[in-house]
Amino acid sequence: MRHKFKSTLFTIATMALLSGCSSDSGTEDELTMTPFTINFSAMSGDQNVDCDSMVSGFGNEGHYSIGVSDLRFYVSNIELFDQYGEKIEASFDSNEFQLNHDLGFVGLVDLTSNSSGKCTSDAIPNSEGTARTNNVMTGKMIDTGVNKITFDIGVPQAIMKEVIATQSAEDAPSPLNEMYWSMGFGLSSLCNELCYREHDGKYR
Fold first, then answer.
1. Burial category of 23 from C-beta neighbours within 10 Å (exposed 0-12, middle 13-18, buried 19 and up)
2. Alpha carbon distance 14, 160 (integer Å)
3. Each residue of 128-145: b (16+ CB within 10 Å) or e?
4. How far is CA 190 from CA 61, 63, 102, 108, 142, in A?
5. Mean pLDDT of all residues in 175-179
6. Which residues form the Copper-binding protein MbnP-like domain (predicted)?
7. Are strands 190-197 and 64-81 parallel, antiparallel or unpaired?
8. Nearest to 122 by CA among 192, 59, 53, 51
9. What is the per-residue burial (b if ≥16 Cβ within 10 Å, else e) of 29-56?
10. Domain segments of the chain: what residues?
11. 175-183 — which CB contacts under 8 Å span 24+ positions?
12. Rounded to 5 degrees, what are φ and ψ at 165?
């Protein structure tokens, strides 16, 4: 039996937490680089969604509740803008979730573990969730006041082609050693697995 669910399940929300200040002179040449953090979270309306939460009211009669079992995605082309629409100069840290490649930057956001709630291996068949999680992108910027942040979901094609051509899925630099899609001979942009609970309380 096929079930129809709401087409929009979760919205990925971002919030930039910026600290530090610029120099008193106010000239761009003398401004210092300030650390910043961009936080990511999964939301359904005003409800924060994680491995231990359920979102109700799905299905034709609202008898189904949805839980997230795996939610990971790559981000790239992150840009910060000030109140005048001018791009803010920024750089990104390098770590196990953030890769500064010769051809650009790519980061991995992983909002679910595999150790609790609907994210455990017995909650959904063939679950591919990982133990490690990451909900931030970090770096440094010239702080002229951030008004807007834009980004793409996915790995830039140039980086993907370069990595696939020269390295195996296991040898690829982190975080590109996750989410390899063998059928597509590439990296998945987003992995989102869900389980649902009917009115009888059973998970499917």
1. exposed
2. 25
3. ebbeebbbebebbbbbbe
4. 29, 27, 23, 10, 30
5. 84
6. 35-186
7. antiparallel
8. 51
9. eebeebebebebbbebeeeebbbebbbe
10. 11-154+191-197
11. 175/74, 175/96, 175/97, 175/98, 175/99, 175/106, 175/107, 175/108, 176/99, 176/106, 178/72, 178/108, 178/130, 179/72, 179/74, 179/108
12. -75, -25
**Cα-based distances in Å from 116 to 32, 79, 103, 203:** 42, 34, 37, 15
> Over the stretch 90-117, which tens digit does the pLDDT of each residue have?
999 999 999 999 999 999 999 988 888 8
Cα–Cα distance for residue pair 142/32, rounded to 1 Å: 6
Gap between the Cα atoms of 78 and 95, Å rounded: 16
CA 131 – CA 129 distance, rounded (Å): 7
